Structures are given as structure tokens and as C-alpha cells.
């Protein structure tokens, strides 16, 4: 049995796999996000306890011995830990918006662009650079007490194995890592005013770190590999490794990834280059801030349950009877394929004749347009896989194929956990059939007429977005 652990933003999961890649069992636990006035935080102990709980459940349900475990999880944010991996303060989430004024300042004075030209990372308020700088000003005592500023999965790895604070090249990609040398760029640390905090940056393991489990959640001595984080793990789990091929993750975050061997640090600073386990190979990532979270908000506001979405999408035609949604719901604005910390969602074309179905379809269409924008900016030229919670809605997947105008290789199940296992197997020299492990569960073809309609609507979406950005900057 192989186990993949995926420490998500709102849900922690563990999945057990057979050597063939067949998913044997999944256990999940929700974890809490605390939101207040732009602050988005998580209780690290709650997150770790959820990891132990799902591991206990999976290992109890499947009697086979655990060959190895791979770990992945949400990226960005700041997870301050002491020397034992215990929390110093609540984790600041990647969704956090408290540092937006710093990002605004760095956008204005050229720091933002200077960092991108060196690292390929377009900073946003919830990434470690701005958050560490904010904490250095407002909560210096927390930084004084911390042994390391790690990422989510790193905290879990530390606690499960006692291996000490460390991260991998994928998590470290934003915003301090030089993608050519795969080491921290001290000039970037200096540009962000954090030279005196340089010692908090966790050592980078390249290749990913390995250690034996201490016995909490996993049997003592179980081999564990730390990384990559959830975006590149999903790319591995979906078989997206050939340059030009892409992955769309329709999850809490709407992430668009394209495999590439071309490191281009010119053009509009946006998104990031994620370092992979193969030097000279990157994922050009455009992780938009909000994916299913936008639809969740609309469903909650309208009193609609998730299991009603497919039926409601069938009740209203493409174009949602004139209702339009710009789906930028995150408190910290947007980060891909552009950075606009103050951008907010817009709902237009609503009248007394509009229905819940119109609102839901317009939201799904708006998310699709945002995905198309990101994929085009990331340089998609090959096949496209799709995974995440959104794949549970067949109607939404058909809508997405039409909006994107291309076939979708649908990857169901725990794709991130699957990728974590494949990464761990590679690190430990275990021969797994990656092609078999990453076979799609379905391929959805777009409807030609609807795709042509949405191509025109996409251009209108870009116009509305441009106008919205101009209003924010005015």
C-alpha cells in the first residue's frame, strides 16, 4: 500500500493506493479558516491533528503494510514553527490579504518587478515575502520566537518525522528562489527588507527530503517524502510533464499550470515558475485566487446545495440570460494572470427576471473565462487535464470544455495525493507505472457551436475585466 497525504486549505485527505495506482480508500477531515478584516489564518495544531486522524483511518481500513508515504499540501502563506515544529502563532494563509499595502508599494516603486525578473515570481499579499515583511513590522516578537518560516506540508513533515525544518524547490519557488540555481536569492531577500530574517528561511532539499515516521498516524519507520506542494503534485498525478501540456485545477484556488523548459522572465510580471524535481523543467503557473470558493459563495448566498448545480445549469442557456460575473472574490484581490490586490468581484446584468440558475451559470462561466485567460498566459499548446472538486459536476465540466474550446482529460479522485506518491516513489527508487497511474477517467469534447459562442463571450469578458481594473486604479 502507498499513501498520499494532501493537506488542503479547507480539507485534509489521505488516500491509499495499490501498486497499480488503483485508489483503495480515502479519508478526509475539514479544517477551519478564520477570516477577519482581510486576515485569513489557520490553527496549525488543528491541521496536524486532522492529518493524524485521516492517516489513522486509512491505515486501519487497509490491512496491507505501508510501503511509503508521499506528502503534499497547500502552498504559500507563512507557517511559523519552533525548533520542534510546533506553532509560534496561527498560520497566515495564502488567501490572507493583510499585506496588500506592501504589495501596492512594491508595485509602485519597482520592487515587485525587480523580484519577478530575478525569480519568475509575481508576489501577491498571501505569499511569504509580503507576509514576512508585514509580520516583521507588526509582530516582530513572533518572528523572534520562530525557528523557521516553513510551508504547510513542511510543518506536517517535521512533526511526523522529527526531521527538522526544511522545504523543497517547489514550495520555495515563491518568492525567494532563483529558478536557475535552485537556491535562495539573497538579493531578493534584501529587496524585501528581510536580510535580518534570512535565517528563518527553511533549508531547501533538492531532491525532496525523506525521513522515517515516528509512529504518529503512520507505522514507525514508514518512509515519508516531503513534497512537492499541491500544484506540482497535481501535475504529476495528472501526467502533465511534457512541455506544452497543461493542467487546470478547479479547486478552492483556480490553478492553471503548463509544463515548460523555457524560462522567460520578460513580459508582464504575473504568476510564477514552479521548480520541479527535474532541473531545467518548470511549471508555468497562473494560480488565480478563487475557483470553487467563488461558486461556494454564490451557492451559500442563494441557498442552493451543491447537488443542485447540474440541474440548474440545464435550466438556463449559455450566456445566463445576460447575467455576467467577474469572479474575483478573494479578499487579497487577484494574482494571475495579472496582479491586482484591490480587484473585487462584479455581478452585472441582473434584473427581477434573473433566476438562481442564471446566477450560478454566470458564475461558472466567469470562472471558465478566468481559467482560459490564465491558460493562454501560461502558454498552453498541448493537451489539457482537469482535476479538483469541480470535476464532480459533469455539467460544469461540459461547460468548461465549451468555454475553453478544447478537450478535457478529466482526472478524478485524489490527484494531488497520487502525485505525492509518484514523487515519493521516484525519490525512493520504486518502479511505478506512471502512465497507468495517470490515466484519465474521461475525455470531454467541446460542442463546436457553443465553443464558438463562448469565444466571442470571452473577448467581452476581457473587455469588462480591463474596465474593472481601470476603475480599481483610478
TrEMBL record:
**Can you cite a GO biological process for this protein?**
carbohydrate metabolic process
- Annotated Carbohydrate kinase FGGY C-terminal domain ranges read 270-425
Q: What is the organism of origin for this protein?
A: Streptomyces muensis
Membership in a protein family = Belongs to the FGGY kinase family.
Output the SUPFAM superfamilies linked to this UniProt entry: Actin-like ATPase domain
Residue ranges of domain Carbohydrate kinase FGGY N-terminal in the record: 1-204
- Protein known as: Carbohydrate kinase
Q: Which GO terms describe its molecular function?
A: kinase activity
Lineage, top ranks: Bacteria, Bacillati, Actinomycetota, Actinomycetes, Kitasatosporales
A Pfam family for this UniProt protein?
FGGY_N
Keywords per UniProt: Kinase, Transferase
What InterPro entries does the database record attribute to this sequence? ATPase_NBD, Carb_kinase_FGGY, FGGY_C, FGGY_Carb_Kinase, FGGY_N
Amino acid at each position: 500500500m502507498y499513501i498520499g497525504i494532501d493537506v488542503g486549505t479547507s480539507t485534509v485527505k489521505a488516500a491509499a493506493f495499490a501498486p497499480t495506482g488503483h485508489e483503495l480508500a480515502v479519508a478526509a477531515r475539514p479544517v477551519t479558516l478564520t477570516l477577519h478584516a482581510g486576515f485569513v489564518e489557520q490553527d496549525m495544531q488543528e491541521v496536524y491533528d486532522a492529518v493524524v486522524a485521516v492517516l489513522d483511518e486509512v491505515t486501519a481500513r487497509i490491512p496491507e503494510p505501508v510501503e511509503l508515504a508521499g506528502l503534499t499540501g497547500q502552498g504559500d502563506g507563512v507557517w511559523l514553527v519552533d525548533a520542534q515544529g510546533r506553532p509560534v502563532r496561527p498560520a497566515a494563509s495564502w488567501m490572507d490579504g493583510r499585506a496588500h499595502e506592501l504589495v501596492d508599494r512594491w508595485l509602485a516603486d519597482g520592487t515587485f518587478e525587480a523580484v519577478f525578473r530575478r525569480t519568475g515570481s509575481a508576489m501577491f499579499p498571501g505569499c511569504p515575502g509580503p507576509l514576512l515583511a508585514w509580520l516583521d513590522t507588526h509582530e516582530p516578537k513572533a518572528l523572534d520566537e520562530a525557528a523557521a518560516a516553513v510551508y504547510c506540508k513542511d510543518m506536517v513533515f517535521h512533526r511526523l518525522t522529527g526531521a527538522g525544518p526544511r522545504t523543497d524547490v517547489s514550495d520555495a519557488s515563491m518568492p525567494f528562489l532563483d529558478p536557475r540555481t535552485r537556491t535562495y536569492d539573497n538579493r531578493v531577500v534584501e529587496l524585501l527588507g528581510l536580510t535580518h530574517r534570512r535565517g528563518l528561511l527553511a533549508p531547501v532539499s533538492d531532491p525532496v527530503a525523506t525521513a522515517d515516521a515516528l509512529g504518529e498516524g503512520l507505522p514507525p519507520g514508514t518512509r515519508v517524502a516531503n513534497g512537492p506542494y499541491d500544484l506540482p503534485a497535481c501535475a504529476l498525478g495528472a501526467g502533465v510533464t511534457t512541455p506544452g501540456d497543461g493542467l487546470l485545477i478547479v479547486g478552492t484556488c483556480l490553478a492553471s499550470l503548463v509544463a515548460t523548459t523555457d524560462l522567460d522572465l520578460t513580459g508582464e510580471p504575473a504568476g510564477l515558475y514552479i521548480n520541479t524535481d527535474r532541473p531545467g523543467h518548470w511549471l508555468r503557473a497562473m494560480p488565480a485566487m478563487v475557483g470553487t470558493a467563488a461558486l461556494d459563495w454564490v451557492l451559500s448566498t442563494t441557498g442552493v446545495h451543491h447537488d443542485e448545480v447540474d440541474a440548474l445549469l440545464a435550466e438556463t442557456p449559455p450566456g445566463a440570460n445576460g447575467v455576467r460575473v467577474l469572479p474575483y472574490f478573494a479578499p487579497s484581490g487577484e494574482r494571475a494572470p495579472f496582479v491586482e490586490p484591490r480587484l473585487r468581484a462584479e455581478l452585472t446584468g441582473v434584473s427581477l427576471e434573473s433566476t438562481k440558475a442564471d446566477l450560478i451559470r454566470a458564475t461558472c462561466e466567469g470562472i471558465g473565462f478566468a481559467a482560459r485567460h490564465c491558460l493562454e498566459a501560461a502558454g498552453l499548446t498541448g493537451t489539457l487535464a482537469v482535476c479538483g472538486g469541480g470535476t464532480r459536476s459533469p455539467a460544469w465540466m461540459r461547460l468548461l470544455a465549451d468555454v475553453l474550446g478544447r478537450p478535457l482529460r478529466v482526472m478524478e479522485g485524489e490527484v494531488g495525493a497520487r502525485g505525492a506518491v509518484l514523487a515519493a516513489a521516484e525519490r525512493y527508487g520504486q518502479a511505478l507505472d506512471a502512465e497507468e497511474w495517470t490515466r484519465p477517467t474521461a475525455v470531454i469534447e467541446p460542442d463546436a457551436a457553443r465553443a464558438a459562442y463562448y469565444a466571442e463571450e470571452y473577448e467581452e469578458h476581457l473587455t469588462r475585466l480591463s474596465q474593472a481594473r481601470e476603475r480599481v486604479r483610478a
